[in-house]
Amino acid sequence: MNIYFQKTFQRGFGTYPLKGNELRGAIDAAIDVGYRAFDTAQMYANEADTGEALAECGVPRHELCITTKVHPDNYTEEKFVSSVEASLEALKIDCVDILLLHWPPANGEIAPSLRLLRSAFAKGLATSIGVSNYTAAMMREARSIVDVPLVTNQVEFHPLLNQEKLLAAAAETGIPISSYASIARGEIFKHRLFADIGETYGKSAAQVALRWILQKGVPLNTMSTKPENIRANFEIMDFTLSSIDMSRIDATTATGYRIIKPGQLPWVPEWD
Ligand SMILES: NC(=O)c1ccc[n+]([C@@H]2O[C@H](COP(=O)([O-])OP(=O)(O)OC[C@H]3O[C@@H](n4cnc5c(N)ncnc54)[C@H](OP(=O)(O)O)[C@@H]3O)[C@@H](O)[C@H]2O)c1
To answer: Is residue 16 situated within a structural domain?
Structure first.
């Protein structure tokens, strides 16, 4: 089974932009609540702090699912493998569970970096591989370049953004979508709908938004520094949104709100 679809790993804990004691406190709280999937990246400059917290958290390594992502500056023959080896050393592990390409390259030519990712996989540096911030067209192209499953395309995914094109590409290519910015960094709280729906279920606005994502078939990444939010974001398996409530939330995707705007980073592709 795709590692992302194991029940516990469907609710991942993100580490950006945390570092040091704040990150340590958040990871410890997340472990206590039951999170077992953790998301970091070379770009976050917190792999060593993440590795230390996870090495000392008391949960056996084989129960954890650790994701890291290769920085686009390392998409060269000279740097790719050594950068992944440096990530593994920082994370204090021999092999990462999921290794992603963090962004498509700035020139949009995805084949060379996918081949480098494939060779890191062949060397045994990662149990599974995937991509992040790919467009639907890139997902289709990737499928024809890489001969092993890509376990995810991690993208901005929340109820204020219509990502139906990516969901269609996921169904077509077999590359599942997973989410980041799952509550749109708090923007969802400006819409009363989520709190209103939550009242029916005895759940908060954030829990409703996260549950909507899961019911779309999309595994989550959330991040919080507050133990009560860390817990709330995990406690979303004990209710089911009705099809009517799912449709009401579907309608808010027309808001078209994006955290990552075109041109914000050199690698941002032309979004679908
Ligand atoms: N692949 C990529 O390019 C990419 C890009 C961005 C992020 N990511 C990953 O995805 C993870 C999550 O995304 P994100 O952190 O950008 O966005 P997010 O989860 O939508 O938002 C995080 C913010 O929401 C607040 N929050 C969290 N849960 C809450 C709750 N239940 N109630 C009220 N406020 C809540 C947090 O503040 P408090 O601390 O006050 O709770 C935090 O400021 C990141 O940590 C990172 O690992 C990946």
So the answer is: yes
Whether residue 44 lies in the annotated active site: yes
pLDDT in tens, 77-110: 999 999 999 999 999 999 999 999 999 999 999 9
CATH number at residue 225: 3.20.20.100
pLDDT in tens, 225-264: 999 999 999 999 999 999 999 999 999 999 999 999 999 9
The active-site residue out of 4, 16, 35, 44 is: 44
65 vs 5: CA distance, rounded Å:
11
Considering the domain boundaries, does residue 228 fall inside one? yes
Percentage of the chain modeled with pLDDT above 90 = 97
Cα–Cα dist 134/61, whole Å: 29
**What is the number of the ligand 1 atom nearest to the C-alpha of 207?**
31
- Residue 269 counted as domain residue: no
- In this predicted structure, the answer to whether residue 175 has a pLDDT above a threshold of 80 is yes
- State the closest ligand 1 atom to the C-alpha of 41, by its place in the atom list counted from 1: 47
CA 196 – ligand 1 centroid, Å: 22
Q: What are the pocket residues of ligand 1 if the criterion is a CB atom closer than 6 Å to any ligand atom?
A: 14-16, 39, 102, 132-133, 154, 180-186, 206, 221-226, 229, 232-233
- How many domains, the chain? 1
Q: Quote the CA–CA distance of 8 and 4 in Å, as a whole number.
A: 9
Mean pLDDT computed over 16-41? 98
Among residues 122, 141, 156, which one has the least CA distance to residue 271?
A: 156
* CA-proximal residue: ligand 1, atom 19 (nearest): 222
Residue at 258 is within a domain:
no
Nearest CA to ligand 1 atom 5: 180
Say what the pTM is.
0.98
